[in-house]
Amino acid sequence: MPVTEGVHALVRRAHEERVLALLRERGALSRAQIATHVGLSRTTLSEITGELLARGAIVKVNTDAEVRTGSGRPAELLALDPHSGQFLGVDLGHNRVRVAVADAAHEIIVQGHSSYAAETPWSDRLSAAFALIERVSRESGVTFRALQGVGVGVAGPRPAADVREEVLASFGARFSAPVTVDNNTRFAALAEAMTAGDEARDLLYLRLSDGIGGGLVVGGRLVAGRHGGAGEFGHLLADRDGDVCRCGRRGCLETVASVPAVLRAARLAAVEDLAVALDAGEPVATAAIERAAQAVSRALAGAAQLLDPEEIVIGGRLVAAAPGIVARTRELIEADLSAGPRIRAARLGDDDGARGAIAALYRQSPLLAGYPDSAVPADRGLSDPAVPADRGLSDPAGSKA
């Protein structure tokens, strides 16, 4: 894209965001009122609102006839379309899929999830995702007529090339909008980095769930790494003589601190039983959590010494069942580092990956400046040389995801 075209697109995007933000704050307004508030000429505003109307981001809801004084033709009132899904985030985890839909005001308007077995083939996982999307659309009345983008998070250690291509092709064929695919835990890191309002400049995120993954925000940017594996804490060595990991190596952190590993060590069948056992002070369960906290603290302390983050965030199903693991990990790291980072539990729940996928679509945040993505417009083939797979997406400051 020529520089002048790129600048023009960014300016136009900024104008659109100002109009959408104003309508979100004040409700239905006439074009003249919008022009006054955002400081645009009538001609420019007509172009912007015309494009937003054509995409379905805004709708004509009424006229100002009831409140208008004096003569003249009543003016149309424009408003956000509350039933128009603009951004779709999908998190394809190890044993469940979760979706979230955001409107033009960057508000999450509908969510849903469904489960599948961990050994489910990717083709069936994708079918489950599409069935879930259709169900939440049907039940909520939310449409995808004005869909601007689809973000899909895929469980790691990283989306393999064949999986990424299958996901891109499937979603690209289903929706007439650009699709981007990345690791679901890295998307979760982005969502957590934005929960406080002010985006964290340096954040390290760790998710302890059926698997273990992570994400890094360094210098205000979400880091992917050369091969897309940045933040893969789950496969750091935790116990040289430990169990064989699903990656083929022995003693990875995932074999000690993931939900399945802790349940095996605690001799429990379900993660819900873990909370009960810990509340009762059962020694086997307590020892399993202590072992996991020791392994997690060693991994995070080493990462903190190298990266010097201002904040470490720990989330996932294990934290939800055993929140004390965060406090214990904090205690161990603080004993190891003289001036360590802040350490907290994740603020978001299991929807963090889907929310982060949406955040990656907003295209304005410095968090994703220069971040490589795999966005492929739906009307282009995957092998089209005009659509490189390594161009960046960015996401807006102040998003609600």
What does this structure look like?
The chain is 40% helix and 17% strand. The chain has 401 residues and is an alpha/beta fold. It has three domains: 3-80, Arc Repressor Mutant, subunit A; 87-188, Nucleotidyltransferase, domain 5 (2-Layer Sandwich), CATH 3.30.420.40; 197-345, 2-Layer Sandwich (Nucleotidyltransferase, domain 5). Strands 6-5-4-7-8 form a five-stranded mixed beta sheet, with helices on both faces. A hairpin with a 3-residue loop joins strand 9 and strand 10. Mean pLDDT is 83; it is low at 372-401.
Summarize the structure.
With 401 residues, the protein is an alpha/beta fold. The chain has helices at residues 3-26, 31-38, 42-55, 122-140, 161-174, 184-193, 254-257, 259-266, 271-279, 283-307, 317-321, 324-336, 352-359; strands at 29-30, 58-63, 76-80, 87-92, 96-102, 108-115, 149-154, 179-183, 203-208, 212-218, 221-223, 311-315, 342-345.
Structural class: alpha/beta
Overall mean pLDDT stands at: 83
Count of folded domains: 3
Low-confidence spans: pLDDT under 50, at least 5 residues? Answer: 372-401
**CATH H-tier superfamily of the largest domain:** ATPase, nucleotide binding domain
Do you know the CATH architecture of the largest domain?
2-Layer Sandwich
**In angstroms, what is the radius of gyration?**
23 Å
Instruction: Write down how many β-strands occur, each being a DSSP E stretch of 2 or more residues.
Output: 13
